[in-house]
Amino acid sequence: MSVIIASAVLSAAAFYWYVNRDKPIKHILKEIRYALDMQGAGAGGLIDDWINVSRNRIALPDAAGKVAVVTGGARGIGTEVIKGLLKANMRVIIGIRNPELVHKLSESMENGQNLEAYKLDLKSLKSVKEFADNVLHKYPKINLLVNNAGIMYGKYELTTDGFESQLAVNHLGHFYLTHLLLPALKKAGNLCEPSRFVNVTSCGHYPGQIYFDDINMKEHYDETAAYAQSKLAQLMTARYINKIMEENNIPVKGYSVHPGIVNTDLFDGTVFKRVFPWAMKLFFKTPEKGAVSILFACFNKELQKRGGLYISNCIEGISNRFSKNLEYQKKLFELSCQLVGIDAENFGNTE
Asked: Which GO terms describe its molecular function (predicted)?
């Protein structure tokens, strides 16, 4: 069996080299390594989902009178997160590219009258600022921010702000939004019940590192490495911002969450879905089950003592060594502030 697997891997590597033979060999080898490491991270995620299936549950509280802001949510995991927040009687504001979809969404959800939407395009810092302004104009206090929206893979693209698209959508847009909404989170939180922000990341961060000298990957773009970097950045900044909050006795807690290996449209266009569409339905979580760990991060009271935690299946997840390096966390935080045009010393101070 091991011989068959080894032969398959070698054949795949040879085919990959042939298709990409115009690239320098060092880039080809790096891409193959990332692809294999990402498959390993995915397999580990599936095993984690199976082993901890009984832990993946949440009892929704009554959070009437509280306000949640969620990015994305028109489909997939985000829709299920919104359903959970509405069932908990929260007022939910979502940021999506087509806010007119909110009418259809609200009609299909319990307490749908508590749902509203504003336009948000995370590829544009201008759009992020406009979204935050619209939210803050009506809601000066926010109890919960869920940075949920995301993209995975795709051809190299620079946004209008000059950022690699996966970095922009998954990390920088959310980083800037957290900065803009932090004053409202501070106002809503207290020592007994802090406000929270939740970054939806992925076990796909595990093979990743931050390319500080070429964070937009202009020298060489690998879609897998770019995705891993963006998800790693979400995890690291959740930890570092939470650290800043704790050091300054600010009642806001930050968490990052891997929702599991979930059957969503993020996999559309991937080789895995083209080759094994049946496997996704058989082995992957449904979006409803994928939302559970996110809702756990939103509501579980025991987590108030564990700010900065990376969560998978409602327990502490396994994060890579790079993410735990405090020097790297600080360096990423400062670089992110520089890229979005804010003073690191005044992060979260916009008034």
From this structure: oxidoreductase activity
- What are the pLDDT digits (tens) for 173-230? 999 999 999 999 999 999 999 999 999 999 999 999 999 999 999 999 999 999 999 9
Give the confidence band of 263 by pLDDT, cuts at 50, 70, 90.
Answer: confident
The amino acid that residue 281 corresponds to is K
What's the length of the chain? 351
- Looking at per-residue pLDDT, the higher value among 339 and 50 belongs to 339
- Residue from 34, 139, 227, 240 carrying the catalytic annotation: 227
Which run of H or E residues covers position 186? helix 173-188
Q: Which residues contact 130 (CB under 8 A, 6 or more apart)?
A: 119
| CA–CA gap between residue 210 and residue 49 (Å, rounded) | 27
What is the rounded distance in angstroms from the CA atom of residue 182 to the CA atom of residue 145?
9
Calculate Rg over the CA atoms of the chain: 20
Domains and CATH numbers, the chain: 49-346 (3.40.50.720)
Query: With contact defined as beta carbons under 8 Å apart, do 167 and 205 qualify?
Result: no
pTM of the shown model? 0.91
Q: Which residues pair with 147 in a beta bridge?
A: 199
Strand 252-258: give its sheet, edge to edge.
115-119, 91-96, 67-71, 144-147, 195-200, 252-258, 310-312, 315-316
Which has the closest alpha carbon to 28: 37, 18, 17? 17
The residues that bridge with 158 in the sheet, in sequence order, are 164
Tokens standing for 268?
């559309």
Nearest Cα to 178, choosing from 345, 339, 337, 338? 337
Based on the residue annotation, tell me whether 227 is a catalytic residue of this protein: yes
Q: Which residue shows structure tokens 């807690």?
A: 253
Cβ within 8 Å of residue 19, ≥6 positions away: none
Place of tokens 């991060």: 297
Quote the CA–CA distance of 77 and 73 in Å, as a whole number. 7
Contact, 189 vs 248, CB < 8 A?
no
CB atoms within 10 A of CB 271: 10
Measured CA to CA, the distance from residue 18 to residue 9 in angstroms comes to 14
Residue 29, both tokens:
């080898």
CB 290 within 8 A of CB 77: yes
